[in-house]
Each structure stands twice: as C-alpha cells, then as structure tokens.
Amino acid sequence: MADPVTPIQSRPASGRRRGVTGRGLGLLALSVTVLIWGSTFVVSDVALTEMGPATLTFARFAVSLLVLLPFGIARGLTVGGMFRRRYALCGLTGVALYYGLQNLGLRFTTPDSAALLQAALPVLTVGLGVLWLGEAISPRRVVCLGLSVLGMLLVVGHGDAGAGRIGDAAVLGGVAAYAFYTAYVRRIVAGTDPLMLTCAANAWGLVFLAPWLLWEIATKGPGSMSLHAGLALAYLGVMASAVTLFLWTFALRKMPASVAGVFTGAIPAAGYAFSLFTGAPFAWSRLAGGALAVAGVTLPSIGHQVPARTHD
User: Fold this and answer.
1) In this predicted model, which residue has the larger pLDDT, 5 or 188?
2) Cβ neighbourhood burial of 130 (10 Å; 0-12, 13-18, 19+)
3) pLDDT, position 10
4) Which helix (H) or strand (E) holds 246?
5) Rama region for 80: left / alpha / beta (φ>0; ψ in -120 to 50; rest)
6) What's the angle, vertex CA 44, arms to CA 102 and CA 64, rounded to 5?
7) Quick one: average pLDDT of 293-308?
8) Nearest residue to 101 via CA among 167, 48, 145
9) % of the chain beyond a pLDDT of 90
10) Contacts of 29 (CB under 8 A, 6+ apart)
11) CB 292 within 8 A of CB 150
12) Ramachandran sector of residue 134 (left: φ over 0; alpha: ψ -120 to 50; beta: rest)
C-alpha cells in the first residue's frame, strides 16, 4: 500500500517504475539462464575429453545435489520422504536418461548438433500434452511445430554419417525422456515443492546412474581430471544445475509464463552460437535448420504473450 501522504497523481508513475524494475530483473534472470544452459553443450564436450559420459553425468549431479540439498532440507525434505514413485520417475527421466544420453551422444556428435536438436523438446512435449494430458492445440501451433520438425530433419540430415547419426539418436532419445519428465511434472505439480522435487530427482538420478558409472570405471578405469576439466565440472554442477534453478524460479515470479516459453526456445540458438564461437564449422544447411526449429518453437509463444502487470 502506498504512503497516504503520497499525491494521487504520483502513484501510477511510481508503480510503473516498480513494474519496469521487476520486469527488467526477470528478463535479466531469463537471459542469464538461457546463456548458461546454451553453453553447457560446449562445456560438456570439453569435460568429455577427459571423463567418460557416465562419470561426467554422475559427478555433475553429485555436485548439484551438494549445493541444493541444504535448501531442500530447509524446505522439509527428509530421507524417508524421498522414497516416492514420483521422485524416482523424475530422477530416471529428467536426470539419468536425459543428461546421460546427451553426454553419451556428445561422444559421437558435435555440440552444435546436440544444441539444435533440443528444439525437439517442445514438439515432443506438446505431443504428450495432447495425447496424454488432453491439452488442446491450435492449428497455428501445429504448423509452427511442423517447422520445428522440418528444421530438425535438416540438422540431422546434413550431419556426419555413421557415428554422428548415432550421437544424434542418443541426444534425441534423451530429449524424448525429458519431454516425458516435463509432461509428468505437469501432472504432479499441484502440491509439489519445486526445490524438494529437484533435490529428490537429483538423488534418484544418481541412484540410476550408479550402475553405469561402476561399469565405466570397471571397463575403462577411473581416469584422471585436469584443472580444466575440473572447472568445467564445477560450472556444470553449480552454475548450470543449481544456480539456474534459482534464476529460473525468480524469473517466473516476475514474468508471464509465455515470455519464459519464448526464452526456452532460444536455448538451441544460444548453444549453436557458443559452438560457432569455439570453432565449430559453419554450415548454411545447419543454420537454416536451426532457424526453422527455433522459429517453430518461439512463434506460438510470441503471438500469445500476456502483458506484465505494472502495478503491485
């Protein structure tokens, strides 16, 4: 409530200033989050030069869990409370399968391909929403998602044959698992604390990743880690897995969900840009495919943005 001695004519201006400030901070948080997520494909590729995919995936979420667990406990998470089917399923699909298959795919494909293939996530998520959750979809969005599919076909079709296609398939398999995770979380979101869900899913992800990690160590040895790879791992575990959770949650408190949807569509483009900056070869076909995929994801959200409030 405004101060009672404040002149009436000054209140709207003050409200606009507060609204712009909140919206600006929300846009900043979304921008930083997208840039961090977009950079993970290049950073993971660097770490994979010294670590196996199982080791990297397990270590990343072990670091993330160490950062998040105190906050989860403060919110009421207990060891006994983690033994719930919903947490286990989220850990399997949203952590072990998605990130495990992504890192496995990066052993065979390039970071730019892995980044652009993330545009499949909204397509698969919408499909599950329609078929599983009974959500409605407009003809316009069907056309836009068709653009995304065409763009992804261009990306995959002009990639490296053989091992590169295997890597692309692994990345797409991980994306499919995360689409299931996203649709499943929509079903259970009511009454579920996001931070507690993230902590529990991280823990269950480590449980599911442990057999793969043990097999990798038994067959290839524990390996070694240079300072370079260690910094990459710390970045993935702290910045890309823990800090972004707080930034994303903060942004959603300041911005309409439709705006956040536009920003998530920019993650493949950000990942591709980071790949080009770090030496990935430029290809017009891949750029065109990525542009189509990103356009198909973002156009429906741009057309349905809800203006942010400018008053408290």
Assistant:
1) 188
2) middle
3) 38
4) helix 244-254
5) alpha
6) 90
7) 57
8) 167
9) 29
10) 247, 248, 250, 251, 254
11) yes
12) left
Token reading at 199: 């902590």
Q: Which of these, 236, 202, 194, lies nearest to 51 by C-alpha position? A: 236
For the record, the structure tokens of 201 come out as 């899913």
Contact, 37 vs 178, CB < 8 A? Answer: no
Burial class from Cβ neighbours inside 10 Å (0-12, 13-18, 19+) for residue 217 reads: middle
- Record the tokens describing residue 282, joined without a space: 């430029």
Q: How many other C-beta atoms lie within 10 A of the C-beta of residue 128?
A: 18
Is 212 within 8 Å of 95 (Cβ atoms)? no
Do the Cβ atoms of 43 and 240 come closer than 8 Å? Answer: yes
Angle CA 250–243–101, to nearest 5: 115
The contacts of residue 131 (CB under 8 Å, 6+ apart) are none
Tally the residues of the chain. Answer: 312
pLDDT at position 140 is 72
From CA 60, how far away is CA 233, in angstroms rounded? 6
Do residues 291 and 283 touch, judged by C-beta distance below 8 A?
no
**Rounded CA gap, 30 and 247, in Å?**
7
pLDDT digits over 129-157, tens only?
Answer: 777 767 776 777 777 777 777 776 666 55
Are 94 and 205 in contact by the 8 Å Cβ rule? The answer is: yes
pLDDT tens digits, 69-124: 998 899 888 888 888 998 999 999 999 999 999 999 999 988 888 888 887 777 78
The span from the CA of 119 to the CA of 171, in Å, is 11
**One-letter amino acid identity for 57?**
T
The tens digit of pLDDT for each residue in 195-229 reads: 888 899 999 999 999 999 999 999 988 777 888 88
Contacts of range 217-222, beta carbons closer than 8 Å, 24 or more positions apart: 217/55, 220/52
Token representation of residue 110: 């390039």
